[in-house]
Prior knowledge:
This protein has helices spanning 6-11, 59-75, 90-93, and strands at residues 19-22, 26-30, 38-44, 83-86, 102-106. By secondary structure, it is an alpha+beta fold. A five-stranded antiparallel sheet has the order 1-2-3-5-4, with helices on one face. Residues 6, 15, 17, 29, 31-33, 41, 88, 94-97 line the site of adenosine monophosphate.
Amino acid sequence: xxxxxxxxxxxxxxxxxxxxxxxxxxxxxxxxxxxxxxxxxxxxxxxxxxxxxxxxxxxxxxxxxxxxxxxxxxxxxxxxxxxxxxxxxxxxxxxxxxxxxxxxxxxxxxxxxxx
Length: 115
Ligand code: AMP
Ligand code: ZN
């Protein structure tokens, strides 16, 4: 049965995406509505609703997600200037797609506090 999850469908190739990186566990692609000059989403191929839904079995996967994001940020030339990771979680976190994703934002000065 086809998945109803948008990002699972992107991983399956059912919905086109601008792929930045792919391996057995992780997929990364350009955000369709970038809010910074570089805006990449890094997601596990395993469906997890959000980071709070991960459990001890996902420990290695979460580590891989962040390490891979750092490699992608470096490959995008962001290591020197810096960048920001965002993992929106749940309603108050502003999460709109319910498949765990890490935003890499870079290419401009970020402000704090976030909106
Ligand atoms: P969030 O608000 O943290 O759940 O982030 C969801 C992100 O997914 C947003 O930044 C959207 O712009 C992005 N997005 C939604 N649909 C697509 C798509 N088809 N391809 C790439 N990015 C998408
Ligand atoms: Zn999914």
